[in-house]
Amino acid sequence: MNHTDAKATLRQLLDSRYVGVLATSKEDWPYANLVAFAVPDNIYEMIFATPRQSRKYENLAANPKVSMLMDDRSNNIEDLRDAVAATAIGTAVEAAGSERERCLVIYAARHPHLDDFARSASTAVFRITVEKYVMVSRFQNVVEIAP
């Protein structure tokens, strides 16, 4: 798969998924959570929201390095052959001020049912700056996509 095709496949995957698996870490232990995410036109940015009173938030405060897994599996045996998965690797920063509002607009466009949650004073909105994606298809076809 060439870079242009890989990037198109990645964009299709990002547009078709509402939830990904966010991995955070504090000290030596990884922690994974399902999170609703949004990706603007710039695929090297991802947005998610989390309560400030959560382990995710605590982990992000200690270590902003994250990864987010998105995939198109359907929980069938064929997934081993046919599924596409992409891991975004990057740094998460809590959005504040006008940046928070910009992120909230993007997030609400993708998840209007979560707008009240995201806008709550007790919710933090994070922006991940993606350093690269590692995309796997056809079980062993691995492609890295970076800016």
Shape: globular
CA-based gyration radius: 15 Å
Enumerate the strands of the largest sheet in spatial order, edge to edge or round the barrel: 1-2-3-6-5-4
C-alpha termini separation: 17 Å
Please give the domain count.
Answer: 1
Main pleated-sheet profile: 6 strands, antiparallel, barrel
CATH topology term: Pnp Oxidase, Chain A
CATH superfamily: Electron Transport, Fmn-binding Protein, Chain A
Number of helices: 5
Mean pLDDT: 93
Low-confidence blocks of residues: none
As a percent range, the share of helical residues equals: 25-40%
- Regarding CATH, which class? Mainly Beta
CATH architecture: Roll
Annotation, overall tally of beta strands: 7
Give the structural class. Answer: alpha+beta
The arrangement of helices and strands along the chain is HEEEHEHEHHEE
